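User: For my dataset I need records formatted as: sequence, then structure tokens, nothing else. Please produce one.
Assistant:
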Amino acid sequence: MTETAESAGGERTVTGAAIRLDGVVKQYRGQKKPAVEKIDLDIEAGHIVAFVGPSGCGKTTTLKMINRLIEPTEGRIYIGDRDVTGEDPDKLRQSIGYVIQSGGLFPHWSVAKNIGAIPRVLGWDAKRIAERTDYLLDLVGLDIDTFRDRLPKDMSGGQQQRVGVARALAADPPVLLMDEPFGAVDPITRVRLQDKLIAIHHELGKTIVIVTHDFEEATKLGDKVLILSEGGHIEQYATPEEILAKPASPFVEEFIGSGATLAHLTLSRVKDVQHDSVVTARIGDSSQEVINRAKAQGATWIVVVDDQGRARSWPSLDEVATKDRVSDYVDPRLPTVAPSSTLNDALDSMLAASQGGVLVTDGRGAVTGALTIATIMSVIRGQLDVARADDGHVSYRDYSEDSAT
């Protein structure tokens, strides 16, 4: 089911399908209280919805009832116009992408074989599977030649998780379900995976439901956030801005608690502030020519990029001058953020790398600019002043225009 939705940039193709839960209940045998009480929920096609709440609130159970890994005791589940409650569960799951923590890859299969698992079951021919695999590896930011034949054990946790997302998207499903997908990776990798998911969502327009225990992650990723309490009771289902501005119950107020001010800051993105321009150079360029070009723009450092414009290092002009040609060196501590990254993400990246700035990259990793710690701290100070003035109840929309100036 494909729809077209209006976005800030104009028309956007939505390949996702709406999801509706109608009176869905999960009651386990021998338990007095239901794991999920009667739940009614509408998820718009092409949206990301984050399920969040304390342990035992039924968020994972609710997610797994959508693809019937857990069978509902009562109620109906609709994907698009289909009532999938009575469909063959194996066939249903072949039409729904599913991502779990740590990727869940088959350890003895190559990356390509993992990604092609569902297409093979569906009878796709080898050429179509190979083309789809290469497209998805590029989409999730993994070099095709490097990773196609690699085994999961030879990859980092973040790389495995990217393959897990690619595998879930292999058969082009309208719905992607994600159960704590980024919980097992380090904080910096987690930020990059979140940003990659946002970029993929923008490009493909799938309907994504993600379970997380982290309210900050929920507010960053979700078009809407579903806050559940014990028994799968819906405490609030709204946009992050609305939840922060108007918590629907004492439970929600307590749940977001002291993190509310921080969550306000997560709603301000890198794309909302003005970036500094950067001087880029390619490997093998004349060092003197690059230095002259940088000095003409008042820069004291440059960014060395590959053929796709992706950053490899950012040496100072003094470092560049030590050789006649720009050399190839990959800086493993190079801090990068995407436009969808929050200002907190950018600040964390700088601190982790012990750097006073961070490079901004587009959805495919090409460098588009830079942010300094001074710029970010200035914006954060302004937001905190607004938050204090409004006694903590400030909507992102009240200050997003100010933060961009």
